[in-house]
Design brief:
The protein has 504 residues and is α+β, with helices and mostly antiparallel strands. Helix content is 43%, strand content 11%. The chain contains 20 helices and 13 strands. Strand 8 and strand 9 form a beta hairpin. Its EC number is 2.1.1.127.
Length: 504
């Protein structure tokens, strides 16, 4: 078997996942809980706390449809500056008959690569610069106090309280209709019940959902700490305190709804980088293999298509290099053709090791940390494991003289004995088997469930996610077994490793 030297065997990958940093604060309107329920203050959710009884909702929806059918979102946009475009709003049924149909943007005529599908003028785009009225304040707050998503959510929540008096009423009505649902009409797992979250058992995504929800809660709890600034930030609500105006569950629903449709614009100021664009998400489909993006021009946000479309076809945009776990949390769907899908394997040197400091120094010299995250991309499992092996071998070095050789070596720096290599690969194989055993279902059982056309949509996307994770883990296990089979002597017993690195 080829010995891979530690110092040049791999590209020392950075940690790609930033996590969900939810910043902080702010404040706003005072309203009784009863009036919150009556006025339907939030943006999105199936919660009856938000929308009232089903009977009342049915009456409200019928009345709204009768009043507003003549002016849909696109008509309102044209009236307020949207130039002629090449798209139309269409709809498909929701899986839940209690919810409105899903609207989506489709081509109104045949489109060719490079065509501008639409260009939404800046006057119809919601950014922090518009919300706060001051770019300096916007950048200060989002750097130190309040996250962009929370600020945008609160703004639309307060605008919604004005009802039809708000300029944004037609857009808010459309967001209400969409309810933050993804392509399968599924809400983000941030809004799932505990029973529904159990569909993600075994997946690290479940813990990520819980961590993100806790972050939203922390941010909500901090909103009132800057309530005295509300007069300058939200001019029409100078006195109301946000946590009195909106219960946490409603704030969370609004936050998730905004998260599902916010656009990250490039080459603009910080106060404009997060934007809510009518005709943008969630009305546009997301595809990982699409390269079309909403882009900012001097006076508009436009979409240039990257592929031909026939009239009536749904138009897609790129959702960024996000793994399926992020797509599910942010948008409520899983892309089974996602070349950016990945899992993380965290390796750590043993801090009890007498030679820990020397090993830490060697790892840092080669661009890695004492606790190192390895991103395993789908289809690139062998490359990632080849990257991990030198790091793990370093952790297995136990003889002080060998460690000194590693420190001073300018060439291949880890003398790998057959028993050490066997131990390293055996640990890897056991690790991948353990992760696979943490799921309550097997790959074949997942396939059987997904073949059922009547499978609950939330369970369907959850099953798609865990299936994609298991495929990566199975591929990693197979690569490890292949490495084991390449050992010169399979009868060699793995070396004892009192300070072996940990994997999780």
């Amino acid at each position: 078997m080829e010995v891979i030297p530690l110092h040049h065997s791999c590209t020392w990958l950075p940690i790609l996942s930033r996590g969900s940093s939810i910043s902080r604060r702010r404040s706003y309107p005072r309203v009784s809980p009863g009036s919150i329920r009556r006025r339907n203050v939030c943006l999105a959710s199936g919660s009856e706390t938000l929308i009232g009884s089903r009977k009342e909702e049915g009456k409200r929806r019928k009345a709204v449809n009768e009043r507003d059918e003549a002016e849909d979102l696109k008509s309102w946009m044209h009236k307020n500056g949207l130039p002629p475009c090449k798209v139309v709003l269409k709809e498909r049924p929701s899986y839940d008959e209690k919810h409105s149909a899903i609207h989506y943007v489709a081509a109104s005529e045949d489109l060719e690569v490079g065509d501008v599908a639409f260009a939404v003028p800046n006057s119809l785009v919601v950014t922090l610069k518009r919300v706060l009225g001051n770019e300096t304040i916007a950048e200060l707050l989002t750097t130190n106090k309040l996250s962009e998503l929370a600020c945008l959510a609160l703004y639309l929540m307060y605008e919604k309280k004005q009802g039809k008096k708000s300029f944004w009423y037609p857009y808010i009505r459309e967001l209400d209709r969409q309810r933050g649902r993804g392509q399968l009409a599924v809400e983000s797992p941030l809004l799932w019940s505990e029973t529904e979250l159990a569909y993600l058992t075994g997946s690290p995504t479940k813990a990520e959902v819980q961590e993100r929800a806790e972050g939203i809660k922390r941010e909500y709890n901090e909103l009132d700490t800057v309530w005295f600034m509300a007069g300058s930030l939200f001019q029409q609500y100078p006195y109301d305190i946000p946590t009195e105006a909106f219960p946490f569950e409603i704030f969370k629903q609004a936050f998730v709804a905004v998260q599902s449709c916010v656009v990250h614009l490039q080459k603009v100021s910080l106060a404009q980088r997060f934007a809510l664009v009518p005709l943008g998400p969630p009305l546009l489909a997301y595809k990982s293999n699409c390269k079309a993006m909403l882009t900012a021009t001097d006076d508009a946000v436009q979409l240039v298509v990257d592929r031909p479309y026939k009239a009536g076809e749904s138009i897609a945009v790129w959702c960024g290099p996000q793994p399926n776990s992020k797509l599910l949390i942010n948008y409520g769907f899983v892309d089974e053709d996602n070349s950016y899908d990945r899992l993380m394997v965290e390796a750590a040197l043993n801090t009890e090791d007498p030679q820990y400091q020397d090993k830490r120094m060697v790892a840092q010299r080669n661009g890695k940390l004492s606790v190192q995250a390895f991103q395993v991309y789908v289809g690139k499992e062998k490359e990632t494991l080849s990257d991990m092996l030198p790091y793990l071998r370093l952790g297995y070095v136990s003889d002080p003289s060998e460690m000194q050789s590693v420190i001073s070596s300018q060439g291949p720096i880890c003398p790998v004995s057959p028993c050490m290599e066997s131990a390293v690969l055996d640990q890897l194989a056991q690790y991948f088997r353990s992760r696979l055993a943490g799921y309550p279902t097997t790959l074949s059982e997942d396939e059987s469930m997904l073949a059922d056309p009547n499978l609950n949509p939330k369970k369907r996307v959850a099953t798609q996610l865990v299936r994609s994770e298991k495929k990566i883990l199975h591929a990693c296990l197979q690569v490890t077994l292949d490495f084991i089979n390449q050992l010169p002597d399979l009868s060699v017993t793995p070396c004892p490793a009192p300070y072996a690195p940990s994997l999780r």
